[in-house]
UniProtKB/TrEMBL annotation:
Pfam families: Rieske (PF00355), Ring_hydroxyl_A (PF00848). Its EC number is 1.14.13.-. Keywords: 2Fe-2S, Dioxygenase, Iron, Iron-sulfur, Metal-binding, Oxidoreductase. The keyword Oxidoreductase applies. It comes from Ancylobacter oerskovii. This is Aromatic ring-hydroxylating dioxygenase subunit alpha. Its cofactor is Fe cation. It is an enzyme of class 1 (oxidoreductase). SUPFAM superfamilies: Bet v1-like, ISP domain. Transmembrane segments: none annotated. InterPro entries: Rieske_2Fe-2S, Rieske_2Fe-2S_sf, Ring_hydroxy_dOase_asu_C_dom, Rng_hydr_dOase-A. It comes from the Bacteria.
């Protein structure tokens, strides 16, 4: 079947309860440490999360260290050119091994100098020859499940979880013509936020606020929604040109071969539970959220362009307006969400009626609640 017959945009996609009866989630959904703990156990340690792009670790010996809800992670490309993911902790006494991004011939623990090959096997452990029964093979780095889709790296702490492609469902159908695998990451920032992780993603999936919060930047927007299959959601902000820059003609042309529907605007997706890919007519940018505590999160914002664009002699000059827009809008959102988090802590705050433009907020809330134990969900309303 074609994209047009399987993914048809609608004014909004609404699920029970019906429009008019639906309300925002209970305040404890965003403020209760017990809810946050249950989300870590039943969602973040069991679902796929975005860890970066292949072009960040292109050559043997290249590595990238990152933090996750499950602890520190190390992506490293071996001498065999295979990319692997490991827990970034020494098998001796759990020191962090590497930080940031870089290149290494082997991995040496900075605490007691245990050292590992790039494939994670233990190469040396000073002083351990005197330890009875000690053998190297069982003490290599602990692998983390990894799958790659269109150049994007996803990790999962649950070896029994469905595959990444099952998780994505029919998402590749809708955004396939963007050819994300041919893109290159060129920019990235991280923003520490004082709000619940879900607020960042809810905000990213509704245009109700844009004419107010972003009055000085992107302004008012209108969107359509798409019903989906899999663990993801999507709206499309309608515009006949890229909205990835502010108040000017986009410096880059439309991606070659873009589908008719994709030319009509920018897709804002959420791949549950923690990442948005925003696909415009000329680029892609992401918002990835790392939960820290019930009221603290880290927001990662990064941008990608088709490789051919990055090879233009004036690429950096052309790309600058995109970076300015992505950072400015993200900071505006963080500012209002930190205020919302404070409001949610009020003993008088109550769930309010949802607008039809909150359809994806409701859909995401219902998805999350469906992953949690019944006693946690029931307790939120208590």
């Amino acid at each position: 079947m074609s994209i047009e017959t399987t993914l048809v945009p609608e004014p909004y996609v609404w699920t029970e309860p019906p429009l008019g009866d639906a309300k925002s989630a209970p305040t404890r959904f965003y403020t209760d440490p017990a809810v946050f703990k249950a989300e870590v156990e039943h969602i973040h340690l069991k679902k796929w999360f975005f860890a970066g792009r292949l072009e960040e670790v292109p050559n043997p010996g290249d590595y990238k260290a990152l933090d996750s809800v499950g602890g520190p992670v190390l992506l490293v490309r071996g001498e065999d050119e295979v990319l692997r993911a490991f827990a970034n902790v020494c098998r001796h006494r759990a020191s962090i091994l590497l930080e940031g991004c870089g290149h290494a011939k082997n991995i040496i623990c900075p605490y007691h100098a245990w050292n590992y090959r790039l494939d994670g096997t233990l190469a040396g452990a000073p002083g351990m020859r005197e330890v009875p029964k000690f053998e190297k093979p069982p003490h290599g780095l602990i692998p983390i499940r990894m799958e790659v889709w269109e150049g994007s790296i996803f990790l999962n702490y649950d070896d029994d979880a469905p595959s990444l492609m099952t998780h994505l469902g029919n998402m590749p159908e809708l955004i396939g013509s963007h050819r994300l695998g041919d893109m290159v990451k060129t920019w990235h920032i991280e923003i520490e936020t004082r709000c619940n992780w879900k607020l960042l993603l809810e905000n990213a999936m509704e245009t109700y606020h844009t004419g107010i919060v972003h009055a000085a930047t992107v302004g008012a927007q209108r969107s359509v929604s798409f019903p989906t299959q899999g663990e993801w959601h999507v709206i499309q902000v309608q515009a006949n040109r890229s909205i990835a820059v502010l108040g000017q003609e986009p410096p880059f042309p439309v991606i070659e071969g873009l589908s008719e529907q994709s030319r009509k605007g920018t897709y804002f997706t959420v791949i549950e539970p923690t990442v948005q890919f925003a696909c415009a007519q000329d680029c892609m940018w992401w918002l990835a959220v790392r939960p820290i505590a019930v009221d603290r999160s880290v927001l990662s914002v990064g941008g990608c362009f088709p490789k051919a664009y990055t090879e233009l002699p004036d690429f950096e000059e052309r790309a600058a307006p995109y970076y300015k827009r992505w950072e400015a809008v993200a900071l505006e959102d963080v500012g209002i969400l930190e205020k919302q988090q404070i409001g949610l802590s009020s003993c008088l705050a109550r769930p309010g009626p949802l607008s039809w433009r909150d359809d994806m907020v409701l859909a995401m809330n219902r998805w999350i609640m469906a992953q949690l134990p019944a006693h946690i969900v029931d307790g939120m309303a208590g």
